Automatic annotation (TrEMBL):
GO terms for cellular component: cytoplasm. One of its GO terms (molecular function) is zinc ion binding. It comes from Neocallimastix californiae. Residues 90-135 are annotated as: Disordered. This is AN1-type domain-containing protein. InterPro entries: AN1-like_Znf, Znf_AN1.
Amino acid sequence: MKETNTNNEIDELLKKIEDPTVENIKDPSLCPVQGCKTKITLTGILCNQCEKKYCIKHRLPEDHSKICKQRINKAEQQQFKNESFHFIAKERKESGSGNKTTMEEDHIALEKKFKSQLKKKQNQRKKKTSKGKKK
């Protein structure tokens, strides 16, 4: 019984640490990432998702919070779905057919396009990170 209480307490603490809405008790002039002691007075970068300032090392959602990373992924997926819907509707109007094989082909083509765009965005973020890491 005592172990489950401590496990629940640990889980709650982990949620609070990862939750970008929970204010950090640390000095506000320091990066809010646990263990980071970089000052962010002039070089702090504001995250669009959680509205917090981070140091250059933790500026990307992938680097500072799982929740921000999930929000970014959901936003990119939603944007892609919206673009895909308009693309399919436009193609249907031009071709004038509602053929099932065409729909399947469209789905496969859009899935490939989504995966390539997702990789492209991830690579862009990684390139930005690697440029900042000079020794």
